[in-house]
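ASSEMBLY PREDICTION REQUEST
Request ID: AP-0331
Submitted by: J.K., bench scientist
Number of chains: two
Total residues: 264
Priority: normal
Notes: Please return the full assembly, not individual chains.
Input sequences:
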Amino acid sequence: MKHVATLACDKVIIDHRGAHSLITVMSNADIAVALNPQSPNEPAEQPIPANAVMPREWFVFSMWMPSIEDAGKSFEQVIEIYWPNSDKFTEGRLPFKADEKASYNSIQMLGFPIGQVGNIKIQTWLEYQGSRITDTFDYCVSIKHLDRPPSPVTASQTN
Amino acid sequence: MDCPVCGYKKLTKPPLNFSICPCCGTEFGYDDAKLFHAELRRQWALAGARWFSRAVNPTPEWNPWLQLINAGFYDALPFRGLFYIPPQSWESQKLPSNERELVFQ
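STATUS: Completed
Returned structure:
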């Protein structure tokens, strides 16, 4: 199996023919983070936890191209996601059966790691019968914290 | 079996009869006789959502916030984030004028 692409995106839409459409590929994200006010006496400025996760759906999409002898075999794609400080955030496994066409794999995530500034690293590889059979492929999403939400920017302002 | 307070998915006993969740430490039938699950959840999250048990260890990548999100308990998160994917810079996409002409020829 040849690795063609792995990336993170907002959404993957799969139509009735099985065609995949990727919405908003992510390579960097700005996040305005704040503590929810709990009481009037609470200190206004506290850092959010370094392991903070926000509820947000996102996807890791991968594309694999089979060779002739791969058709009909069952593989397992392993995905590991790491915090900027190299701690593991989460991992997932997606079993799939290859045919003669390209395999499109999408893994849905419900939470996005926002606690640390830096690169969120997504690592993936394929396993066959419990053994790793491909190199490890990396994709990063760079996270930046903003003090406040960005104001809407139009093309005319930036151009 | 899921903990109705923190969303921990590996309770070994039903959340009844004074069993204790190793994750949030709720003693069912005692703690939840005094407070609603939502209030216990809020207090646990506000206190840092720390693992309770010393006998049962979490997995190395255990994350309390992701656990709450996966259980649908968004309201308990003590922080919020506004996610913004910045547009690619127009400047970086500009081609020199001669290259632009080549592209469109």
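REVIEWER COMMENTS: The beta strands of chain A are 2-14, 20-26, 28-35, 53-65, 74-82, 88-97, 103-113, 118-128, 131-132, 137-146.
SIGN-OFF: pending second reviewer
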